[in-house]
Write a structure and sequence with these properties.
The protein has 338 residues and is an alpha+beta fold. Helix content is 30%, strand content 24%. The protein has an eight-stranded mixed beta sheet, sandwiched between helices. Strand 7 and strand 8 form a beta hairpin. The longest helix has 21 residues. One of its GO terms (biological process) is sucrose metabolic process. It is found in: Cytoplasm. It comes from Glycine max.
Length: 338
């Protein structure tokens, strides 16, 4: 046994230590945000364990209900929603919770109430559970004023007002990617320690990528700018090499690859879904926040994604996000269309 190597492990940058270090940069902080994040991390660890043994524990399959989106809820969806709501409420730091699985927002009782609002998709990509494809949890955090009783309007803010956002991907490894507004950092769960370790410090997306990610099965229903952009990816007119198509169908996995390797992720509006398909509050906003923090862009087809002001909890939007120059190209095509 290499005892010297084991001794070194105590100096690893865990997510807890990372967050506390950041907290020390804000002398006025009372630690509320750090406590909230620790409860989110706990929920992610629990779900990582549940996903890994889902087949053995008979958690795979349908729970027999449909969620607010009209999608059949899988057993893990129901479990993950319960886990996150309990973890967030028990932190004592939240006042409003918005989940993809619940039609209405959850208002935390006054005795356990804090100053944060959390929007989350507890298990994104759950249609892929049964075949073992990477799935994940997406979350965003808002700070709200404490001078009034919380209302739905406190949640319906533009994404640029987010305090923090992140996702946890459950795949070949469990990876948590987080931004608190000063860059993006990635942490990987070390099962032997039960700790998330900093493995991807200060993630910066390449200015231009070689990959595009889109469901081409919807191509016949796309608008002209999206059709032209994908055509340019396949048959570039400037003599450059074609882009490679990579599409998993799990937003967390597709965005994670885009963040690390560069390129663009597209989920446009089409004739079937004229308002787009991805939900603004807990899918579009957190991922757009992370992309911008990493040096990329996020665009809805007519504006910067984080400037969008949602009017309802489960509102949908088109989204194009990824490398700065790649998103510039799709923006130019939409501008020319107008």
């Amino acid at each position: 046994m290499d005892h010297s190597a084991d001794a070194q492990r105590t100096d690893l940058m865990t997510i807890t230590r990372f967050v506390l270090n950041q907290q020390s940069n804000h002398p006025e902080s009372r630690g509320d945000f750090s406590i909230l994040l620790s409860h989110i991390v706990l929920g992610c660890k629990f779900l990582c364990s549940a996903v890994n043994k889902a087949g053995l524990a008979k958690l795979i399959g349908l729970a027999g209900e449909t969620n607010v989106q009209g999608e059949e809820q899988k057993k893990l969806d129901v479990l993950s929603n319960d886990v996150f709501i309990k973890a967030l409420v028990s932190s004592g730091r939240t006042c409003i919770l918005v989940s993809e699985e619940d039609e209405e927002a959850t208002f935390v009782e006054a005795s356990k109430r804090g100053k944060y609002c959390v929007v989350f998709d507890p298990l994104d990509g759950s249609s892929n559970i049964d075949c073992g494809v990477s799935i994940g949890t997406i979350f965003g955090i808002y700070l709200i004023k404490e001078d009034h009783e919380p209302t739905i309007e406190d949640v319906l803010q533009p994404g640029k007002n987010m305090l923090a956002a992140g996702y946890c991907m459950y795949g070949s490894s469990c990876t948590l990617v987080l931004s608190t507004g000063s860059g993006v950092n990635g942490f990987t769960l070390d099962p032997s320690l039960g700790e998330f370790i900093l493995t991807h410090p200060d993630i910066k997306i390449p200015k231009k990528g070689k990959i595009y990610s889109v469901n081409e099965g919807n191509a016949k229903n796309w608008d002209d700018p999206t059709t032209k952009y994908v055509e340019n990816c396949k048959y570039p007119r400037d003599g450059s090499s074609p882009k490679s198509l990579r599409y998993i169908g799990s937003m967390v996995a597709d965005v994670h690859r885009t963040l690390l390797y560069g390129g663009i992720f597209l989920y446009p509006a089409d004739k079937k879904s004229p308002n787009g398909k991805l939900r603004v509050l807990y899918e579009v906003f957190p991922m757009s926040f992370l992309m911008e923090q990493a040096g990329g862009q996020a665009f809805t087809g007519n504006q910067r994604a984080l400037d969008w002001v949602p009017k309802k909890l489960h509102e949908r939007s088109p989204i194009f996000l990824g490398s700065y120059e790649d998103v510039e190209e799709i923006k130019a095509l939409y501008a020319a269309e107008e």
